[in-house]
Amino acid sequence: MSGTLFDLGAPRPVPTPPVRPRPLVIGLDVATGASGVAGDGWTDHVRCTASSTHARLQYQLDGLASFYRNAEYVVIEGAAYSKNNNGADSLAGLRWMVRQDLWKRRIPYVVITPSKRITYATGTTVHKDPDGLRVKGPALKAMVRAAVKERYGIHTEGPCQFDEADAYVLLAMGLHHLGHPLAEVPEKNARGLAGCDWSGFDKAVAR
Q: Domains of the chain: which residue ranges?
C-alpha cells in the first residue's frame, strides 16, 4: 500500500487557549466628603461639600455609580475595626448604600479592610517606614501614595490624592486575585490578599 491509515507527518501544534482579557475592575475608597475611584491606569474622585447629610450621601452614590455601572467587579474599602467608629453613621450608611446598589446591578464586590490594603501597598503589617520607625496618619498615607507611584506609575495629585491612591491599591488587589496583577508584587505585600473574603468574586468567576 502506498498510503497509511494515519498521517505520520509532523505533529500538529496544540492550540493555546485564548487569554482572557483583563476584567473591568473598579476600586472605591468611599467617604461622605471625598471618595477615591480607580480603574486600570487612571484615578479620579467624587467630592461633595454639601452641608446636608442626605445631599452628600446621594451625591456620592450617584457619582460613584457613574464610574462602576459597567464594571465587572468592584473592590471597596471597609471600616477599620481596630478604631473607634462612633459618630461614623453616615459613612457606614454610604458604604452599605453602595453595596446595595452593586447588589441590585448584580456586580460582584469585595470589601477590603484598610490594614490589608496597607500591607499590599507597603509590605508591612505594623506600618513602618524604611528606617523602621512606626508611622501613621498622613505619613502612612504618603507611603501608600509613594508605593502606587513607584509600582504602577500612577502619580496622584490634588486634594484627593490619598483617596485616589488608596482606591488604586484596592483595584490592584482585585485584579491580582483575579489572576491579572498590574505589576510584580513582593510576597510580603501579597500577604495582604490573604484573609479577605473573595467569595463574591470567586462565585462570579465560576459561573
A: 25-200
Q: What type of residue is 186?
A: P
Convert 42-68 to b/e letters by CB count within 10 Å (16 or more is b).
Answer: ebbbbbbeeeeeeebbebbbebbeebb
CA distances from 186 to 130, 141, 147, 191, 202 (A): 15, 20, 12, 9, 23
User: What is this structure's pTM?
Assistant: 0.86
Radius of gyration of the chain (CA): 21
The CATH homologous superfamily of the domain defined by 25-200? Ribonuclease H-like superfamily/Ribonuclease H (3.30.420.10)
Cβ within 8 Å of residue 144, ≥6 positions away: 117, 118, 121, 122, 162, 165, 166, 169
> Which residue in this structure is represented by grid cell 502612612?
140
82 by Cβ neighbours in 10 Å (0-12 / 13-18 / 19+) ranks as exposed
What are the tens digits of pLDDT across the range 161-175? 999 999 999 999 999
Residue type, 116: K
Specify the pLDDT at position 40. Answer: 97
For 177-187, write each residue's pLDDT tens digit. Answer: 999 999 999 99
Q: CA 103 → CA 42, 100, 137, 175, 187, distances in Å?
A: 25, 5, 32, 20, 32
> Helix %, strand %, coil % for the chain, to 5?
45, 15, 45
